[in-house]
Each structure stands twice: as structure tokens, then as C-alpha cells.
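Quick one, T. Sequence first:
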Amino acid sequence: MRRSKSSSARALVIRIRFAMRSLRTYRAIFVASIEAVSTRSSTTMSTRPSSPAAGRWRNLAAEPCLPPIEIYLAGRAISEVGNVALPVSEIAIEGSRAWLRANLHALDAEHHVRIHDLVQPGSHDLRTLFSRRARDESPLANDTSIGVGYAPLSPLEQLVLAVERRINGRDRANEHRAWGEDLKVMGVRNGGTVHLTVACAIVGRHVAHLDDYLGEKAALERLARELAGQRGFTTAEIAINAADYLPTGAVYLTVTGTSAEAGDDGEVGRGNRVNGLITPYRPMSLEAAAGKNPVTHVGKIYNVLARQIAEALIRIPDIAAAQCVMVSRIGAPVTRPALVQVKLGTRDEVPAGQLRSQAEEVVVDQLSRAPKLIDDFVAGTVAIF
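C-alpha cells:
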């Protein structure tokens, strides 16, 4: 059910854009290991005499050179087709470095990380399951799993997504180069007031003084407040890097733009669902879509498909909101799930039973399109985090 903004009920959504996302067929695990990667990439930070933290900033250039971020690529991939050997390790490592170069502007993919390839071939039974389908049949599901989707997003969910997308979607080479990509946005609505807490890793070499750091925080707050107003939240309480403590100069500074360098870690599965959000007040699957193959792994396919079904259902004029749950059975065609359940919120008290045939048509149509998702996944046109 969709609630109005005047409701006193609370809503909570979280969006995290963390440094490394899995490539399509294997998983990445971050292991935190450094405070400052090298003096070559560090910077010296000072404060103007008027600053309350004058003399208390640490000279980042004096930090010890510690080991780089350790990234472990773990997953399953075939290493040969017939008599042709596939360079899986090279593809995995170089593909990961290419992703890091393209998505983390302050991180040196050659020196700030060390990548370990642990990818191995899959089990014999799952490999044969992949290849045993009939010529005219859909791929066979390689797992028994659950996919969940809903639509539409609430105003709060839209706001949280908009804040993250605006910050990480900027022209990073020319606009606010001090903003790192390691970003977390939490939104809480209490009645008509929205509370946003934004954690954004600041790149030290792009802020020469404490006043510069505070200026970057102020810019982040202005952006979040503007987006809140655009989505109807007239009252917004916004905190940027709320753990900062200026009397001692303790602020969220990084070398690489991600906290992975100094004590934070993560792995696929703990982050966003396929709609880009963590939504404890909504139906959600614990499956991680990233790192799963796009052909037979229903942990990826059904979460995207369930979302698309829900989005298609709310295009029916009498449907205001929709939820979809899909259950797979290993060995069955991907296009024939064991269960598809939809829940509908209707407009003007229209009985949901009157919309059953239209809803079934939508589900059948979307299931028939499942094989096309393979191409969309490979092309990168479908978001999975």
C-alpha cells in the first residue's frame, strides 16, 4: 500500500554505492587493509589560522605505506570449450581493473589494489544441467531461489536514489573531484519531515584546508536539500559525514575515495537489491544479483523479472501498486517458475479480482521475454544494484 506523506508512519530506505561490484560471472570480496596507499598518492593537509582545528590535522604524506586493498575474485567459470583454453584468470583480473578505472576516479587500479583470482570450474552436475536443455527450450534454472519486486517507489525511495545518482552521476573529472564514490544514503520519513544521513568519502588531495572540506560538505547538503524539495519534502534534516569531530580534526578523509582503504570491508550480498535500495519495510529477497550468471541463475534473473512484472502491472490504470514474488525450481526452464504471486493495490476500491485476467496477461508476457534478459545483462542495460 502506498502511504501519503502526511502519515505519521516511518519509512526507511538505504542506498549504498560501494567501491567494487561483481562482474557478470564471479563475485568480488573486499578485504580492508590500508590507511594510505602510498605517499605518492597522498596529500598534505593544513588549516588556515582561523580554523578551530588548527594544528591538529594529520599530515597525510607522513602516513606509513601500507599494503594495498586486497580483492578476491571467487566464483565459477569454465576454463575451456572443447580443445580451446579460455584465459579466465586474465579476463577476471583485467576486467576488474578496467571496472575500477572506469568507476573510481581517485583510485589507481594498478597500485592501490591487489587482485587475487580464485575462480574455479563449476561442479559436473551443474555444468551438465547448463548444457542439457532441448534446442527449442529455455535455459534450465541452476538453483531453487526466490525473486521479489515491487512498484512504484515511494517518494522517500525516489529521493534516496536521486541523491546517490546525482552525486555519483556528476562529471567526476571536473565537478567536485573531492567527492569519492564510496557513498551511503539513509532516508527516514517521520510524518512530513525527511531525515537524510549521507556518508561521502572525501578525497584528501582535493581539499587543501579544513575550510575546503567543510565547503564540500556544504555543497553535498545543498544538493540533497534541493532534491528533497523537488520531491515534495518541505522540511528536511540533512547530516553529511555525521561522525566528523572538528575539535580534533577527525573527518572522513580518504586517499582513494573509498573506505575500503582503511578498515571497511564488504562482499556481494550485503548491499543493494536490484532496484538500488535496501528496503526493510518492503518485500525483498536476500539473493545478491551481482556475481551470478545471466543465463540460468534465477537469483539474478527472477529478481529483475519480478521488478519488471510489478512495473508493468502499475501501467494498468486501475492498479496503484503491485508486488511480485517468483519461486524457481532447479532443473525447470527459467520461463516456467514454480510460483508467481502478485499482490495488487487498486484505485477507487476496484476489487483486485476484476483485474485477474489483465494481471495474468502481464505475467505471461513478461515471462516470455525472459530469454531477452540475457542480452540486456550482457549489454549492461539492466541495473542489478
